[in-house]
């Protein structure tokens, strides 16, 4: 679905609604960055001219709802199995652009094996995953990325690292395997970080277009509902509390990826 807008003759059009995005009203909680990242993915798809070639894979979690908002082909995977399904789709349809859109509770828990092995094999797929340090859809339980001392519905006294271990640094893990050529962690909490995240997503898709290997973009995000915070407070909490455990930056970028010109 597209939105027709008539521009007065004395005005210049500087922005259009992404063709790769539907006009469905959002169902996400107030302040949730999922919708922002959806839009970034849609803008990248339009700018690269790949909408008719894209296949998205979304597993269980809040991330699964992306198929309602992006005007591209989508399949739904079982919890954690998005990289495995994406592998099959890409290998049988090498001309397609295949990407997964996952949450941290998916990719860093039940799906960690699929993600690491897909990266290690250098599968020509791109991954965008949202790290909000909690299971958002299923009731706010502790996730692999939940911070020490953080209260969740399954850790009412805070995450005890003696019992549950430490937050899983997924990007740092993915960067260690040979098949991964581009691994970065960004966030979507303010205008500057959103612009950087879009550039990272675009580079990840360009990596696939160039046939260079596996690419991953982690996006630090908030979950004000399950964190029991207001939207603005939750966004600030990302900067103050999450970044010390999950530092922003690019953990791996091969020379071939560096050579890609990303506008």
CATH topology: Rossmann fold
Strand count: 7
Query: How does the major sheet shape up?
Result: 7 strands, mixed
**Poorly predicted parts:** none
The portion of residues assigned to helices is 25-40%
Q: Averaged pLDDT, please?
A: 94
User: What would you call the structural class?
Assistant: alpha/beta
Distance between the termini: 27 Å
CATH architecture: 3-Layer(aba) Sandwich
What are the secondary-structure elements, in order, as H or E?
A: HEEHEHHEHHEHEHHEH
- Overall 3D form: globular
* CATH homology group: Thiamin diphosphate (ThDP)-binding fold, Pyr/PP domains
* CATH class term: Alpha Beta
Beta fraction of the residues?
Answer: 15-25%
State the domain count: 1
Q: Tally the helices.
A: 10
- For the largest sheet, list the strands in their spatial order: 2-1-3-4-6-5-7
Please state the CA-atom Rg, rounded to the nearest Å: 18 Å
In short:
With about 260 residues, the protein is of the alpha/beta class. It is about 35% helix and about 15% strand. It has one domain (about 35-140, about 165-260): 3-Layer(aba) Sandwich (Rossmann fold).
Provide an overview of this structure.
The protein is of the alpha/beta class. The protein has a single domain (34-138, 165-258), classed as Rossmann fold (3-Layer(aba) Sandwich), CATH 3.40.50. It is built from ten helices and seven strands. It has helices spanning 34-48, 82-92, 104-110, 112-121, 161-164, 170-174, 191-209, 224-227, 231-245, 255-258; strands spanning 54-58, 73-76, 97-103, 126-131, 180-187, 214-220, 249-253. The protein has a seven-stranded mixed sheet with strand order 2-1-3-4-6-5-7, with helices on both faces. Strand 5 (180-187), helix 7 (191-209) and strand 6 (214-220) form a beta-alpha-beta unit.
């Amino acid at each position: 679905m597209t939105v027709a807008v008539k521009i007065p003759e004395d005005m210049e059009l500087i922005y259009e609604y992404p063709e790769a995005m539907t006009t469905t009203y959002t169902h996400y909680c107030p302040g949730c960055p999922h919708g922002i990242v959806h839009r970034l993915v849609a803008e990248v798809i339009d700018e690269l001219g790949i909408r008719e070639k894209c296949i998205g894979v979304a597993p269980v979690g809040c991330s699964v709802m992306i198929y309602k908002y992006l005007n591209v082909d989508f399949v739904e995977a079982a919890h954690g199995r998005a990289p495995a399904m994406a592998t099959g789709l890409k290998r049988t349809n090498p001309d397609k652009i295949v990407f997964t859109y996952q949450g941290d509770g998916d990719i860093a828990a039940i799906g960690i094996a699929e993600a690491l092995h897909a990266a290690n094999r250098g599968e020509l797929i791109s991954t965008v995953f949202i790290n909000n340090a909690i299971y958002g859809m299923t009731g706010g339980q502790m996730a692999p990325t939940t911070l020490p001392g953080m209260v969740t519905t399954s850790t009412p006294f805070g995450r005890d690292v003696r019992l549950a271990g430490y937050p899983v640094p997924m990007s740092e893990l993915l960067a260690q395997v040979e098949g991964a050529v581009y691994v970065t962690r960004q966030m979507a909490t303010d205008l500057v970080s959103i612009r950087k995240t879009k550039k990272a997503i675009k580079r990840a898709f360009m990596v696939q277009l160039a046939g260079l290997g596996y690419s991953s973009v982690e996006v630090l995000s908030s979950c004000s509902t399950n964190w029991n915070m207001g939207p603005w407070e939750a966004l600030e909490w990302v900067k103050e509390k999450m970044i010390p455990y999950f530092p922003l930056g690019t953990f791996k970028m091969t020379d071939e990826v560096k050579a890609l010109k990303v506008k």
